[in-house]
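Q: Structure for this?
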Amino acid sequence: MLEVKLHDIGEGMTEGEIIHYLVKVGDTVKTDQPLVEVQTDKMVAELTSPCSGVIKEIIIEAGETVHVGTSLIYIEADDKSSKKEHVVQPKVEKVTLKQNVQPKNVLTTTSITSFNRVLAAPYTRKIAREHDINIEDVKASDPSGRVTEEDVYRFINRNQTSEQPEVVSNQNSVTTDSSNVTPDEIPFKGIRKKIAEKMTKSLFTIPHVTHFDEINMTNLFKLREEMKATGESVSVSAFLVKALVICLKDFPIFNAELDEENSRILLKKNYHIGMATNTESGLIVPVIHDADKKSIKDIHKDVKGLTERAISGKLQPFEMQNSTFTVSNVGPLGSTGATPIINYPETALIAFHKTKKQPIVNDQNEIVIGHIMTLSMAFDHRVADGATAVAFTNRLASLIEQPHKLMMEMI
Amino acid sequence: MVVGEITQQRNLIIIGGGPGGYSAAIRGAQLGLSVTLIEQANLGGVCLNKGCIPSKVFTHAASKRAEIFHVSNLGIGSGDDTFNLTKLLSYKDEVIRGLRLGVENLCKANKIEVIQGKATFLAVNKIGVENGHQFDIFEFDQVILATGSTPVMSKWVTDKGNRVLLPHEIFTLEETPEHLIVYGQDYIALEVASSFAAFGTKVTILFDQNTSQHFDESILKELNRLFKRRKITIYKDIQNITTKESDFSVKVSFKTNKDTDEVIEGSYLFVSGSRKPNLEPLGISRIGLHKSEAGFISVNEKMQSSIPSIYAIGDVTEGPSLAVKAIKQGKVVVESIAGFKPEVDLTFIPHVAHTIPPAVSVGLTEQMAKETGLNVRISQFSLAGNGYASISGKKDGFIKVISDADTEIINGIHMIGEGAVEMSGSFVQLLEMAAKEEDIKFPLYAHPGFSEGLLEAVEGLIGQAIHSAPDKKKDLQTV
């Protein structure tokens, strides 16, 4: 019998909420098959099975918040070669381990083989601590091993050679008044850290191209007004999503994922549209699943509900997963253009910017007031080329500019 | 018990108002934190009310009584050494009351909210505080557990009545025992033996085979010599100890190191026992707090437990059960919570016994130094060679310095003799500064004074102590 424990899946994670189990008692599971979804610091992680076998018992109920190291599931392993060591040590044991190896308890230990003291004055140690340096890493210039302030500063400078002049000039201020130079700190963890990781991965992996275009929203706005008059109020976003799904069906390359390992591009058959949402804790992307099977009204309802839950932090983990294409509707906030970063591993992302009233020339060569929205579409140049992207946004523009065309696409 | 429905919000709650807890509270207030301190009995904890302070009243009185004959030699008084325990007990209460009031006033002045009551965890971020019929619920951002420890009787004492005493009990005795048997050689046992002998009690000391790890062996040897001179009987390396208590005495049977069976009868038996962290009433098992094998709360270097919002300091954590550790940890934990980067390093914690004369060990002992494989240099300077020791009639004892011959860095300083406790302040500073021999030899020392003893002990490392006969074995070529 193998125990699956909640282990530390993120930086300094100590507890997690069991969102739901992806398996139930009696299920046969394979190695690395996801077993349970855990939410920590608003990031969601899946714990996978350490072996193949049968789920014997689910110990902790979904909805409970438990500490790292808590046993969650018992699995009866059927495979002798199962990775027993996968049962990850809980973090707390690391703490005790650290205590046991601490050289500082020398005085209370009976058998001493080495005397491990810090050869530096308390003030020198303080400087090291405040620079997050382990004083024992600092090489002493004194052959007896006594580390001085100068040694610590030399160590700091060597570790920041690129900023050497700045550090040298800081030196005096640090020694005279270290309290004034401390910047304010924002903990870099949880959702912020997750965003950083994702963005870095995306930008370092995908050669981004962004192309800009504008769409005349005048007719769509008119349509909305008419609908409103009949008591039906639908957001612009819902129309945009519907139009996008139609375009994605025409240009499946943008609803795709590059599987480099197996040298193939997967054209997805589901149309799950991610809606980048600004929340207090950062960017969250709730997903409208199977948007192709939903009416504009359904999409409108979805967008509304998802946004509300995202802002209040009440999204279920599955509501943030498996998007195939992402929309960033920054229009309500303002802006005319951007170079957005693709929601890896997707192929493209569209940002819709602010719609502004502009003089436009209509088909009768008259100058009239039009509602013009700009958009920025970022796409993966490994997968698609500029011409396809332009064709894609042209199609999108035509659907929005003549909203009756949307009717033709209704299933 | 009525469970109130209102949960009160607090930022930082400290459970336990002992030296660790109140130091944490005051430092927290100094750093601008809003602090709530919960204490079920008296502020000051075991240290102030039952431990350090009362015991030091006794050792102080004992050392004064031991001075009577010296004082009469100076022409003062007539050598009258009558001893009134009742008076000492009320003096002790007076000292405790004064100090406690001091702590209470400091808490008030620092605007610390002090709540009387017994705290229990209700959830990871919630405690209940019970005080009689009142039960309040507090939700906190952070909590520091500083509930201390309780002495536990050694297992071999199967029959514990009023005649077998633990540390917090002996200093409340209302009679001077006729014959006190003291078991153990930790600092508390040594202090008890030394003090009661000075009060005129017949004292017998039983040492088992576990030698003290804190003091340099030379100190224990010197103490033994002085104890014997004061007619204290010492049995070393005893085994198979058992006790039998009757209404007026306690019989202790054991096997001596000469393999003979011995039974001694005393009016009381003192046992230091071991210390158990006060965790059960807190209900920490309910919230899944990680404990070490020995039952202490596991903490990291920031005193943070396995639950990040819960911290622990002092006797509830691993390490020596000493107030000095709790006080330091108390300040450090709060500074750390406030965003600073402090550190606790117990390497040079001073081990002190207020015996007559007092003893201190800091850093490497001779035995430890030899085990490290360092090129050890050792010097022991007898206080008989110190002028001020002669003047004050305190010629017993010595200062011992251990250094590394290759680097001349001082690794340990030990002293038994008058003023050792105060001198230990210099010892810890020198060791923390990673002082070399020259760092001690260069400064000027008050003459005549005990501190000259430290200078001479260091000079003696290379055979250059002025007030010490040349040691033929010392290699003067190393100068």
